[in-house]
Write a structure and sequence with these properties.
heterodimer; A: Cytochrome Bc1 Complex, Chain D, domain 2; Jelly Rolls; seven-stranded antiparallel β-sheet; five-stranded antiparallel β-sheet; 27 helices; 20 strands; B: alpha/beta; Alkaline Phosphatase, subunit A; two-stranded antiparallel sheet; 11 strands; about 35% helix
Chain lengths: ~775, ~425
């Protein structure tokens, strides 16, 4: 299927590294509105400033917003000038409104007056960790897997110290959660002494701290993210074989009481990690073994088949150093600021990585310590390390200063390589991916890798760049499409949806236990996973249709959720505990009727139409809201107890000051009043029938009559503003720069392609990744549907 | 400054060790303890029992002659204390080797478990802390004796597995402490940060140069960001310079590169571990340490002594096998030489901030899992103490009548000012600490 939305014609500049800001000329010719300009000068400027910037002590709030010209004109006619309202009306008001709209008020005017530029940015924390993991990983045979289903299991008969005397059975176990009592685990094994070895991979869905718990009254070792060493198989009790230190070591028992060992580990999402459990029973009265985990935002549960793979993986180098949070003030994380704390964190991370590299030097360099080619191999490794970290071939000068000089300063190769690793990871060339030599193709490769993986280019990208193949949009697109299949892209997209759907806030969801019995931490974790499953399946389906996120009339539930929400549940498989359940389409529609989101956007006991409304305004309908002029705490007990929530909110926000924004926020929030604080459908609030009907006024001034969540979803799915808002948010999260920095019409063009191409989310990601990768190389865009 | 060791001080007061618990609460005595100089102790382990006739002096008291095995300690004779007649009375689960090892410093029973030895019932870990960790906890609990690590657990050719045969120090019940057998790993633990800081200090200059070079190429608006970055680099350089002025009292030892942890490198590893240990003491990173040669049932092949057989299998040979007895004697002499070398090095170092040498403030204790290899007896376990860390009266060969070794650990704890009434299994502590002062 050939659906090329964008045709990119690239003119390769000789001066390929010309600053991105220079190619930003998209001047818009504005017809001069003489009358409006004159009236503004005469009547408004003294308070609002020449460009609407405001005047201190008079009116210091800048004149910008998203009202239409008509709406502005009405406001002016009614309220302006402040000392003589009613003197600027009719055609005068229209002319002033049109003038300020064009000159500085509208978002378009602001973008034109203050064109955003692609700012120099350092790696974000996520990009740093992903880059270092892939940098170290690039010297391994990288083995990653996405196959689910459990761990490979081998059952052995033991004989005294020989724990693996005779293999009796091989199979795949969906989890490690067995209670054998006093019996044999499988036929053909004696009950008094046997051993079991489980091996495969752990599939980590998210980035964050994971906890693991091994419980057994017998002997067991758990190994995570460690490569198997030769002879390292716990075959004999008295073996001197060099072993990886176990993540949890419960090899020696103490009576027949179960012992518990735990471990905490920071893992990167979207990757697989080698995992093993070795277990044995020797003349103990009983035998049992269980492996549990607590993933980020999750609760303790048996580590199940959904996150276990019988396939092997190689280890992943995860930087454990804590970083200060990235700047998220623009609504997305970006690296356009540095701080002392950040600088110190990058230093600690560089030291940590240097020590990690030194400890793995044989494996990474492919040579044996002390062998005749040792120094030479270590030095070759150091050169490659530098080249890959800088994402381009080394010039002779760079090789001399970053590699050769370090090996001259330090004759011991291990110490010299530590110097190189620290120097390279501290270098601005690594930390700021846009810095470096003028290497056009490599710059494109660098950006693609950041756009789609938050990481460094892989061998495929570097080779393509080396062959000069990244000069045509087709070639770049085909690389991007290849990269989409990688687990890292999946993890990055997942990260976007977490952000978009406020999923990081799950930790704060707790509800009144009396009002909502059963709504506990485990249920919240399930809700979160249910929403993740829904988003994941929509995004990675064939159609990948954004509208389905808004309109779907089904949910994915497991047994606990089905019981709580009173849904019908048919048995699920172990590797996939999620069952798709149809909802009443008149009740629920898509993502914002998911009980997780509804619960997050609610109070402890009651709903919060304001939180829901603000979320819908900003995140779903793509509108801007100014920060509230004053902070008002919602205090339930201040209201007449017989009021409904809708009545309370209406009362609370009735002033004109509030209504400036709440005229938009409230109707949207009210349309979800059919869902209580835990997202269950209801017909009554405070013993009165729920009234979810409201009139919502769009940016263009159209009034949409909403009677239910379904109406709202229908409007959102058709709304161009909502769609453009989605495109903008995905762009910002992915590229970490404002879209207008790539041309004032970037968003419009991407949005047009998105709308015409079936609202395909994954294709949109490819489009924006390709578009920005070529920026600054004389890129021109033209649309060919 | 009062450098008289506490034990000496108490003896001068005419107070016997047995009476000590009654006086322990008196503030004047407490204060004296706090003012005493540094006290340190090193526990040294070697496996498979000794050769009694080549080990124990024939004489008792102050005039005695070293037999062949202890002869390397001749230069330190007046600072040596030999204790015969101490027995590991701990019974219960586990074979003699397991209890010999894991009950040696803990003096308490093993938990029932799943590790099967050559005889007896299977067992697990020790059910209490070891004396070195008990003393460590005590010292770390007081600001005047607290150090960066408190204790160091070092090994020489200890196998890469954790079980009751390979662990002798315990932080508590079921909490074995793994010794570090790789001197480079020890170095990293002690000095890694210092070295990393040195390297950092020397590369930051290059980082700043490159920032400057690249700063010229970026857009004007972006230069502020790189300038800010450059400021942080410069600040870090200055901080590193400042911290470099707070140097260690004793520079990190230079380690010979490329030494493996395999059998044949044992002599070199021993020397490196000793140097690292003394250096850590000199820099007051710890007051307690242990040095573990191989493990219980250890089978080092001491080819550098011309011995091809493994230590453990030799130890099973009968007394009549003179060839084997001679080899076992040589093996034990070699370990004693390592002990003597450690003492010599400590004695060559002036006590930092104190009087005398470091050996005057350090007691090295050498012991074994068994009394004798071929009988697997836990009676008459070898205990030899060298140095003045505990203030015991040295230059003596003492004999006891089959007393539980718990009592020695009580003496050790009390010598540090830790007034324990029992240690390990209390039923072996009834007679109180041994009077060694």
């Amino acid at each position: 299927m050939k659906r090329r939305i964008w045709m990119l014609v690239w003119v390769w500049c000789a001066a390929a590294a010309c600053s991105a800001a220079e190619s930003l000329a998209h001047p818009t010719v504005v017809p001069v509105n003489e009358r409006g300009a004159r009236l503004y000068r005469e009547q408004c400027l003294s308070c609002h400033g020449a460009k609407g910037e405001g005047v201190a002590d008079k009116h210091d709030e800048p004149l910008y917003g998203e009202r239409s010209v008509e709406s502005l004109a009405r406001l002016i006619a009614k309220t302006m000038p402040e000392d003589k309202p009613g003197t600027c009306v009719g055609e005068d008001a229209d002319a002033v409104a049109a003038y300020i709209f064009e000159a500085f008020y509208s978002p378009q005017a602001r973008a034109r007056n203050n064109p955003p530029r692609v700012e120099l940015a350092r790696l974000t924390n996520r990009q740093y960790r992903e880059s270092v993991a892939d940098l170290v990983g690039s010297f391994h045979k990288i083995r990653q897997t996405t196959v689910k289903g459990g761990l490979r299991a081998e059952y052995f008969q033991s004989n005294g110290m020989n724990k693996k005397d005779k293999k009796i059975l091989s199979r795949v176990d969906e989890s490690v959660d067995f209670n054998f009592g006093g019996d044999a685990p499988v036929d053909g094994v004696a009950q008094d002494q046997f051993s079991i070895a489980w091996a495969g991979s752990l599939l980590a869905p998210d980035t964050g701290f994971y906890e693991f718990r091994l419980t057994t009254p017998n002997g067991a070792r758990l190994y995570l993210n460690a490569d198997l060493l030769a002879g390292d198989s716990n075959r004999r009790d008295d073996s001197d074989a060099r072993r990886q230190p176990a993540t949890v070591d419960l090899w020696v028992s103490a009576g027949s009481e179960p012992r518990v060992g735990t471990a905490r580990m920071f893992l990167l999402g979207g990757r697989s990690y080698p995992m093993r459990v070795d277990f044995f029973k020797f003349k103990d009265a009983v035998a049992s073994v269980r492996v549990e985990w607590k993933p980020p935002h999750g609760v303790w549960s048996v580590l199940g088949a959904e996150h276990l793979s019988p396939e092997p993986s190689s280890s992943v180098f995860v930087v454990g150093t804590a970083f200060p949070p990235d700047d998220g003030s623009a609504g997305y994380e970006r690296g356009t600021a540095v701080s002392k704390a950040w600088h110190e964190a990058t230093t600690r991370a560089a030291v940590e990585t240097a020590n990690g590299v030194a400890a793995r030097l044989e494996g990474l360099s492919g040579a044996r310590e002390g062998a005749t080619n040792w120094t030479e191999s270590v030095k070759a490794f150091a050169s490659k390390w530098t080249e890959r970290a800088f994402r381009q071939p080394l010039t002779p000068e760079l090789k001399a200063s970053y590699v050769d000089a370090q090996f001259e300063a330090e004759s011991n190769p291990e110490k010299a390589v530590k110097r190189v690793v620290m120097l390279v990871l501290k270098s601005p060339r690594f930390l700021y991916p846009e810095l470096g030599e003028d290497a056009g193709d490599y710059r494109v490769a660098t950006r693609l890798a950041l756009n789609l993986w938050d990481s460094i280019p892989d061998a495929g990208l570097l080779e393509a760049a080396g062959r000069g193949e990244l000069r045509s949009p087709e070639a770049v697109r085909s690389q991007a499409e290849r990269m989409m299949a990688d687990g890292r892209t999946r993890a990055k997209l997942r990260d976007f949806f977490h952000h978009w759907l406020h999923m990081e806030e799950a930790a704060d969801v707790s509800k009144d236990a009396k009002a909502f019995p059963g709504f506990d931490e485990a249920l919240v974790a399930d809700l979160r996973a249910s929403m993740e499953t829904f988003v994941d399946r929509v995004v990675w389906s064939e159609t990948s249709d954004y509208r389905e996120l808004l309109l779907a009339d089904y949910l994915f539930v497991n047994r606990r959720l089905a019981d709580f929400y009173g849904m019908k549940f048919e048995a699920a498989g172990a590797a996939d505990p999620w069952v798709r359940v149809a909802c009443d389409p008149t009740e629920r529609a898509g993502i914002f009727t998911h009980p997780f989101l509804l619960s997050v956007l609610s109070y402890h006991r009651s709903t919060s139409p304001i939180h829901r409304g603000v979320f819908l305004t900003r995140n779903v309908l793509g509108r801007f809201l100014k920060p509230p002029p004053m902070a008002i705490v919602f205090m339930d007990d201040r209201f007449d107890p017989s009021l409904t929530m809708r009545e309370k909110v209406t009362e609370l926000t009735k002033s004109d000051t509030c209504m400036g924004c709440h005229a938009t926020i409230n109707p949207l929030g009210f349309s979800l009043e059919h869902f209580d604080a835990v997202g269950r459908f209801r017909t009554e609030d405070n013993a009165k029938p729920v009234n979810a009907a409201a009139d919502y006024t769009t940016v263009d001034g159209d009034v949409v009559s909403l009677r239910s969540a379904r109406d709202l979803a229908g409007h959102a799915a058709k709304s161009a503003d909502a769609r453009r808002g989605f495109v903008r948010q995905l762009f910002q999260h992915t590229i970490k720069q404002p879209p207008a920095a790539y041309g004032a019409d970037t968003l419009e063009r991407l949005d047009a392609g998105f709308a015409e191409g079936g609202h395909h989310i994954r294709r949109l990601l490819v489009d924006l990744a390709v578009l920005t990768a070529g920026q600054g190389f004389g890129t021109q865009l033209s649309s060919t549907p | 400054m009062n450098l008289t060791p506490r034990r000496q001080f108490l003896r001068d007061l005419g107070i016997s060790a047995a009476a000590l618990p009654f006086f322990a609460g008196l503030p004047s005595l407490r204060a004296t303890t706090a003012r005493a100089g540094k006290q340190r102790m090193i526990f040294v382990f070697s496996p498979n029992g000794t050769v009694p006739k080549e080990f124990w002096p024939d004489e008792e008291g102050e005039s005695f002659q070293f037999k062949r095995i202890l002869a390397p300690l001749e230069p330190f004779k007046s600072r040596t204390l030999i204790l015969k007649g101490l027995s590991n009375k701990i019974r219960g689960d586990g074979d003699g080797h397991m209890r010999g090892m894991s009950c040696l410093l803990t003096a308490i029973e093993l938990f029932p478990g799943n590790i099967q030895g050559g005889s007896d019932t299977p067992a697990g870990w020790a059910s209490g802390p070891s004396i070195d960790q008990e003393v460590r906890q005590f010292l770390q609990g007081r600001p005047e004796t607290r150090t960066r690590f408190g204790s160091l657990e070092l090994g020489v050719a200890v196998p890469h597995r954790a079980d009751p045969w390979t662990r002798w120090t315990y932080a508590g019940p079921n909490q074995p402490v793994a010794p570090l057998s790789d001197p480079y790993e020890v170095f990293e633990k002690l000095y890694g940060q210092v070295q990393d800081r040195e390297v950092l200090g020397s590369i930051l200059d290059d980082v700043r140069d490159d920032l400057k070079r690249l700063g010229r190429k970026v857009a004007k608006e972006d230069q502020a960001l790189l300038e800010k970055h450059t400021t942080f680099v410069r600040e870090m350089e200055e901080e590193l310079k400042e911290s470099a002025q707070h140097q260690l009292d004793h520079a990190a030892p230079a380690l010979e590169p490329g030494v493996s942890t395999e059998n044949d490198d044992m002599p070199r590893v021993t020397a490196m571990q000793s140097d690292l240990l003394i250096n850590a003491f000199a820099n007051d990173m710890a007051r307690v340490a242990s040095l573990q040669f191989t493990n219980s049932v250890g089978s080092a092949r001491m080819r550098w002594l011309g011995i091809e057989e493994g230590h453990h299998s030799l130890s099973h040979d009968p007394d009549l096998n003179e060839g084997s007895q001679e080899k076992l004697t040589k093996i034990n002499i070699w370990v004693c030489e390592q002990l003597a070398a450690l003492a010599r090095k400590l004695d060559a170092m002036p006590e930092p901030g104190g009087e005398g040498t470091m050996l005057d403030h350090t007691t090295i204790l050498w012991t074994n899992e068994l009394g004798k290899g071929n009988s697997h007896t836990l009676d008459n376990i070898p205990f030899v103490l060298v140095g003045g860390g505990l203030g015991f009266k040295t230059g003596r060969s003492l004999r006891f009548e089959n007393v539980p070794h718990n009592r020695l650990w009580l003496s050790v704890a009390q010598a540090f000012g830790h007034e324990l009434k029992t240690f390990g299994n209390p039923k072996h502590c009834e007679a109180g600490p041994l009077a060694l002062g």
